[in-house]
Amino acid sequence: MAPNSAVDPVAAGELNSSAAECGLERADLMAMYQAMCTIRQFELMADRLYALGKVHGTMHLSAGQEAVAVGLGRATRADDYLINHHRGHGHFIAKGADLNQMMAEFLGKDSGYCHGRGGSMHIADFASHNLGANGIVGGGIPQAVGVGLGLQMQRRDEIVVAIFGDGAANEGVFHEALNLAALWKLPILYVCENNHYGMSMDVARASARLPIAQRAEAYGLPWECVDGNDVLAVYGAMRAAAEHVRSGAGPVLVEAETYRYFGHSKSDRNLYRSKDEIEQWKQRDPIERFRGWLIAAGHLDAPEAAAIEAQALDTIERAAAYAEASPDPDPATLTEYVYA
Ligand SMILES: Cc1ncc(C[n+]2csc(CCOP(=O)(O)OP(=O)(O)O)c2C)c(N)n1
Ligand SMILES: [Mg+2]
């Protein structure tokens, strides 16, 4: 049994859902596998570049959590709005981010999404409906109420997806926002990415009752808790939730249970969890499980999987090269791009 898990244990290679049930074609499955590999390689490259002193400020890596990003990204539309939290590289990549601009933003380059002003935590791109991340834990939860109200008043059919962590769910603003969102039936898909820890606090020591998503009942909202390391299960849950929200029936809260491999941020010495615990979670790695399932189901063979993985690495190496070759922002533009 995976540590602290409220989700049924699933052996490596096994996934709970069938692609047929999910209505996914082979091309969809390949794209999902590619996206998961790309996110993993992005995070590993970011870690390498940080070690070389090329990333300014800190960063929060999401390796281990790729199934949440990709299942969610596939289940929502490109024009749906995204409000992210601080661990959000994968969510934006799954939404279709330009990897060159993302990597350049990491390195503080002028060719980055925010001209190097945002860095890892503040990558926003209004053109692709990515409304950005938030340094204030839980800050995006009420922002989604404002965006959702705007969409509702304009009778638009996009929805807003607000992603936050298990730690953020213990902020008072979570309850204020869910109450108003429920009362006004706003088009919000709330996604709690439960990676079992806040900075260092185990979710079981910080939360009076689990699963977190059950709190939605207090506001009369539908909720679901899903195995966040099973990309097909995440996709199925998010697709159903997104359909409900888009129909005008009001918000849904989905909790995806997953695990981060790296420390909270670059200053984390990982003293609050054992190596053994991390290893146990690696036994249910979302990418390896999906690869195992794809091969067992006959969608992919091992050389094809290796080719996809190599392509993901190549894409990320090219993005890193682009970012490194890009010019720094001109100091004369210091006050530009920092106000809306
Ligand atoms: C309002 C607020 N309180 C505390 C912090 C410091 N802080 C930054 S991230 C973090 C933990 C957040 O945990 P969680 O919401 O589970 O997200 P995760 O980092 O696990 O993805 C904390 C306490 C902050 N940035 N903002
Ligand atoms: Mg967390």
Structure report:
The chain is α/β, with parallel strands linked by helices and 340 residues long. The protein is built from twelve helices and five strands. It has helices spanning 19-22, 26-51, 66-75, 89-94, 99-106, 140-153, 172-183, 203-206, 231-249, 275-282, 286-296, 302-325, and strands at 81-83, 160-165, 188-194, 223-227, 252-257. It has a five-stranded parallel β-sheet with strand order 1-2-3-5-4, sandwiched between helices. The longest helix is centred in the first third of the chain and has 26 residues, at 26-51. The chain is globular and about 50 Å long. The termini are far apart. Magnesium ion (MG) binds at residues 165-167, 195, 197-198. Thiamine diphosphate is lined by residues 60, 86-87, 135-137, 164-168, 195, 197-199, 264.
Distance between the termini: 48 Å
Beta-strand segment tally: 5
* Ligands, ions, cofactors: thiamine diphosphate, magnesium ion
Largest sheet features: 5 strands, parallel
Oligomer: single chain
Can you tag this structure with a few keywords?
single chain, alpha/beta, 12 helices, binds magnesium ion
List the topology elements.
Blueprint (H helix, E strand, L loop, with lengths): L18 H4 L3 H26 L14 H10 L5 E3 L5 H6 L4 H8 L33 H14 L6 E6 L6 H12 L4 E7 L8 H4 L16 E5 L3 H19 L2 E6 L17 H8 L3 H11 L5 H24 L15
Parallel strand pairs: 1-2, 2-3, 3-5, 4-5
Helix pairs in contact: 2-3, 2-11, 2-12, 3-9, 5-12, 6-7
Bound molecules: thiamine diphosphate and magnesium ion (MG).
